[in-house]
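Annex B. Sample input.
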Amino acid sequence: MNWRVWENPWRLMLAVNAAVLIGVFWHKITLPPYVPYIHLLVDYHFGFTKRALIGAIVSLFTAKVPVRLVFSLSGTVWLITAGLFVQLFRRTFGFDQKHLPLFVFMAGSPFFLKNFMHTLGHFDIYGCLLAICLLLIPARSLAYVLLAALFSMILILVHHVHLLMYVPTIAAIVVLRHYLIQGVNRRSAFVGIVLLAAVGALFVAAQFYGTMAVPEAEFVAYLQSRMADPSQTRLLSFGYIWYQPLSKEVLDTWQWLPHNILGIPVFALLIWLHTPLWRYFCNLVAGLSVEAHRRIVTAAIVVVSLGYLVMFAMIFDYSRWISNWAVCLFLILHAVKTLPASKDVPPISGDDRKTMVFGWIVALIPRVGIVRPF
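Annex B, continued. Sample output.
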């Protein structure tokens, strides 16, 4: 394959995308990490607490948490996620010339690695990382199902919103890679149902019994004692979220809805720019050799999408949700590719002019954002 830039515009897109990523990183580290930093301070000091697993792990290694740990820890997780995704793509599709446009639309998408860079320190990426791990490891035994349940529980302890964000995608990956290939029997079905119930019970515990039992002033004082620089009290301004009931989160979301809904046309445009990728995905599903597999894949996409629709109604970080929804579809696409197919599906055309324009736009967009677009 000829990789010279002037003869390979798709490789040039990747180079431009890498430059954009660097710019996003330098911008990100200039911003105060309010929400990510406080999550590194919260642990299980006052008993079982939601959103406390990462902070509890950090507390095993250091009593005082510097602000820079937000970027060093999350940056490391980002690098691992990016590296594993490259390995996943290589194993599923390969890095030959014909699959390079697909890689650009995935790895270069503003929904994916660039937005994870912009949201550095938030815990969305942990769901993506564990889902990629499940796509890379063998899925032949029930141990795979148990590991997927363990990953799901870890994610809920990291942040209970993962029940809607990445746990449905993990469940879809388990169904596509294990149950559709190995088959379903009474034992495997029973194990799956029991594990689903256990994951659901843990979510209920985190959502409804994970709020702080001590006064907020005492909680904030403890967090301040864990800070390497206790004078930066402004970084503790989000301590109230450990006391906020679900009803208040929903109320805030609907109060801001008229303003935040203005971003929906932008989200629609960004999704449309990925049309070559969605068309390829549809062709993959249509090319599956078993009709039941096609129906199950479609149902999985619907369930994952419904989870994000519920999140839209409850929490107003819309740019994060739409980005992670797209990432979940990217990952499900990899699982679909491993299913038996009745025909070879042609890859995204690298010579089509419209596809190339879309690829350039996708590569140049730096991010989607957290709440509103960009």
